[in-house]
Structures
1.
Amino acid sequence: MSSPSPPSLSASTITKADLDKLLLRYDALIDKLNAQGSKKGPGKGEATEDLKTLDRIRYIDIPQRLATKKAEGSGDVFLEKEEVETLMRWKLYVIPSRSAYASYTLSSIT
């Protein structure tokens, strides 16, 4: 008997149940990518920031700061230079790891 095929990860076909399963494993994926990145880093010989820290800044800290600025009605809501720099470091950290995503399946990210 063959094993079931992995779920489609395409945005147009993924099911809510499969997305929920993947989201539950997101922290484990970040841990794996962080461990890989800490060995090679975004630049040879450079000290690297922790991917978990960059990820938290990307998905939590910056959106909260922008929401606060908007709620305060302090005029235009925009990213500060340091926030853009942090987002670029996150992006540079994640892009080399994209090939690693292909090898992860729902069952392998534990």
2.
Amino acid sequence: MGNIPKLHCRQDVDTSNINEMEKIEIKYKTETKINFMYANLRSILNNNKRDEMQILVNEQKIDVLGITESWLSEEKENAEIGLPGFNLFRKDRKSRGGGVLLYIKENLISVDENCGGD
């Protein structure tokens, strides 16, 4: 199933003979952090918003990006709105407005468990 990143301090480091600052440094270097971001875009296709999101995701090193009010319909292909290096999950709304997108970095395990409901 691959390597799942640990989200806590490693327990296999013997810290009994080092000072407190070194302990903090070891903990900092051995933790994995996941950066989240949320945005209400009111149409990801308007005014270069997708390009702006791509720049922001790269600059801030975002791992999980949630977007509300995507305003997409089924006619738009995932390839047109995808971000390189991310898995895309989406739920379009059948009427004007609404819709959500969830981009999850490819190195994180993500599974689509859509139960078929609206």
